[in-house]
Amino acid sequence: MQDNTRSLPDAVQVEPRLPFGGDFQAILSLIGDAVVCTDQSGKIILFNRAAEVLFGYSSRR
After folding, report:
1. Global pTM?
2. Whole-number pLDDT of residue 34
């Protein structure tokens, strides 16, 4: 299977360290639906693997 993900554009910044615990991160990684979280200004702060696949962007830079 080919990985077709790409890096996020410069306009979208993902916080490298999030205030969520390991349990939250583990649950998020198991969810089959795309999850995208933003802060109050609309900046993307978190998204899961399903969102990477759906939108074609990688959360890792």
Report:
1. 0.57
2. 92
How far, CA to CA in Å, does 2 sit from each of 43, 47, 53, 55?
29, 21, 11, 15
How many CB atoms are located within 10 Å of the residue 36 CB? 13
Distance of CA 50 to the CA centre of its chain: 8
DSSP-derived pairing of the beta strands 6-7 and 57-58: parallel
Other C-beta atoms within 10 Å of 11: how many? 7
Domain range annotation of the chain: 6-58
> Among 2-6, 34-38, 42-46, 56-60, whose mean pLDDT is lowest?
2-6
- Whether residue 37 contacts residue 15, with contact meaning beta carbons closer than 8 Å, is answered with no
